[in-house]
Design brief:
Layout: H1 2-24, H2 27-39, H3 43-56, H4 61-73, H5 77-90, H6 95-107, H7 111-125, H8 131-143, H9 147-159, H10 167-175, E1 182-191, E2 199-209, E3 215-225, E4 228-238, E5 245-254, E6 262-272, E7 276-286, E8 290-302, E9 305-314, E10 321-331, E11 338-345, E12 363-373, E13 378-392, E14 395-409
Antiparallel strand pairs: 1-2, 1-14, 2-3, 3-4, 4-5, 5-6, 6-7, 7-8, 8-9, 9-10, 10-11, 11-12, 12-13, 13-14
Helix pairs in contact: 2-3, 2-4, 3-4, 4-5, 4-6, 5-6, 6-7, 6-8, 7-8, 8-9, 9-10
Length: about 400
């Protein structure tokens, strides 16, 4: 009897200790701690805590997913795949596991395996496949350089108002790889309210893709200004520098006094996280003297909006000058249909309809416009602008600009 009582006491102590240990180890609280560690850069600590959790609670799928993502961030793609497989094994109907798994395989450039995982997910969810998973299907086509298929899926998601961060930026990037050829025409009319005779400017261009040069545009711009005529010839190229970067190169020449004798420009563009874009570049204009211009901009896609702020700097011995341009676009049913509003001070070196020689910085301009893709092949646009250009101290010249254009794609 004495030993039986002792056994019961020991048993109760052990059970109480086990219950206390279980109670003190709150898996949800520990998961949040592990996630915070991972987001704060303490990834080894996050992995260690995550493994402790799944040792006690092997069915906790969110922890397996966290372990997979942290390993993927560290570039350990094979290890990450093991954890994502564990998450799917525990919860085969949990879509987050598939999304994380696909991201990991994309980063590891394991596209055949990604296709297999995507097929498993589509079989599991069928018609209930979410926009997030469908977006990753588009990304798989993108990584395989099947750009038309990727674009079709992305545009369908946009039309359905899918809540995907950076979707417009992604679609705009895909546009660089599709619809390879086009011809177009623009017409500009500038009225100066009697100060000088109106200007008429006409531009014809053709665009195609040429291997590593990317999209290449040949353009001829003919203008009647200051009671004389002149033509400028240019070539633009947009070579790809990788999946998230590309370059812009421009060369041109002219024998007209109001165009540069020759011009050169280059920029490098980066697509950044959170749907940001950034570029930095240089422009070289040769009139009677050479003008050097440094340019940079930052852009952001948010919802249906694209916002962009650009600055141009002209260096000189006195310190130089800065001009700026802020532009906003509101997109409608697709990435080609938008309303644009622009405000600027100074003159951008990329504006063909401006007087770059008479004045370069002392100018103020507002502009609105609309562009629409009428059919899959035809696009049109129209812009209306008003500028107030300072030619000399106290001497301003108003300018009303009307610009229309169209493009045919094939």
């Amino acid at each position: 009897m004495k030993y039986s009582k002792l056994f019961i006491v020991i048993f109760m102590v052990l059970v109480t200790h086990h219950v206390d240990a279980q109670t003190s180890f709150n898996p949800d609280k520990k998961f949040l701690e592990a996630r915070d560690l991972a987001l704060n850069g303490q990834r080894d600590e996050a992995i260690e805590l995550g493994l402790q959790i799944v040792e006690k609670y092997p069915g906790y799928s969110d922890v397996w997913i966290l372990l997979g993502r942290v390993n993927a961030w560290e570039g350990r793609y094979d290890s990450a795949s093991v954890y994502f497989e564990k998450a799917i094994e525990q919860s085969p109907d949990y879509e987050d596991a598939y999304n994380g798994y696909l991201d990991n395989l994309f980063w590891g450039e394991q596209y055949d395996k990604a296709e297999s995982v995507l097929e498993r997910a589509e079989k599991e969810f069928g018609p209930n496949t979410s926009s997030a998973l469908t977006y990753r299907k588009s990304r798989l086509y993108y990584y395989r350089e099947e750009y038309e298929e990727a674009l079709d899926i992305a545009e369908d998601l946009y039309a359905k108002k899918a809540d995907i961060d950076g979707l417009l930026s992604y679609i705009s990037n895909l546009k660089r790889y599709t619809r390879n050829s086009a011809v177009g025409m623009t017409v500009d009319y500038d009225s100066f309210q009697g100060e000088i005779s109106p200007w008429q400017t006409y531009a014809l261009y053709a665009r195609t893709r040429l291997g590593f040069m990317g999209s290449v545009i040949a353009r001829a711009t003919h203008s009647h200004r200051f009671d004389s005529n002149g033509t400028q010839y240019e070539i633009d190229a947009y070579p790809s520098l990788g999946k998230n970067s590309y370059a812009y190169v421009n060369v041109g020449f002219s024998n007209a006094s109001f165009f540069p004798d020759y011009r050169f420009g280059t920029s490098i563009y980066w697509s950044l996280p959170k749907a940001f874009e950034f570029d930095i570049g240089y422009r070289h204009l040769k009139f009677s003297e050479i003008t050097h211009i440094l340019t940079a901009s930052v852009g952001k896609y948010t919802g249906n909006w694209w916002l962009n702020l650009r600055a141009n700097h002209v260096p000189s011995s006195s310190g130089g000058s800065i001009s700026g341009n802020i532009q906003a676009r509101y997109y409608f049913k697709g990435a080609e249909d938008y309303l644009m509003v622009q405000f600027s001070t100074g003159v951008s070196p990329d504006e063909e309809d401006r007087d770059l020689q008479s004045q370069l910085l002392d100018s103020y301009r507002g502009r609105v416009g609309y562009q629409q893709l009428w059919t899959p092949r035809w696009m049109g646009y129209a812009f209306l602008g008003y500028s107030y250009d300072e030619l000399s101290p106290g001497n301003y010249r108003p300018n009303l600009n009307i610009s229309v254009g169209t493009e045919f794609r094939f």
